[in-house]
Amino acid sequence: MKKLLSLSIISLLFISLQSLAGRPAEDDSPLDMAPIPEESSSNIPAPETMMQDTVSEEMNTEMTTTNIEQTGDVIQMKETPDKAHIVIIDFPIRGMDMSKVLNELGEPNTRFPAVGTPPITRWVYSDRTVFFEYSHVIHVVAR
Fold first, then answer.
1. Does the predicted TM-score (pTM) go above 0.70?
2. Is the pLDDT of residue 66 over 80?
3. Which domain holds residue 124?
4. Which of 8, 23, 85, 137 could form a disulfide with 96 if both were Cys (CB 3.0 to 4.6 A apart)?
5. How many domains are there within the chain?
6. How far apart are the C-alpha atoms of 108 and 121, rounded to whole Å?
């Protein structure tokens, strides 16, 4: 019984909120719709005239843009662009120890000393560069 009563109260609140959603707020004042004096109303063009002016202006701009002569260099592109050569290096994986990398890949071409805090070490191989934080791999970049 209590569940039914609470569900009905919730549904009534929901319905009342939906009906209030489309209404303007009470503090919104209506717009002043003062009549336009006759003297100034003759200066305002009729809506049909305004539409015709806009359409004719658009047509004039279209006509002038088509008559513009273009100048400059002409660049011709290949029909089939060269495909980029992407090498995916998935070894060594992040977190691997230096000794494991040394066993799998062998001695690097160049070993750069640790720099900064935490110490970052770089080993350069012929096809990749391996970055270590302390003694664990953090990143591998193809060369």
1. no
2. no
3. 98-142
4. 137
5. 1
6. 12
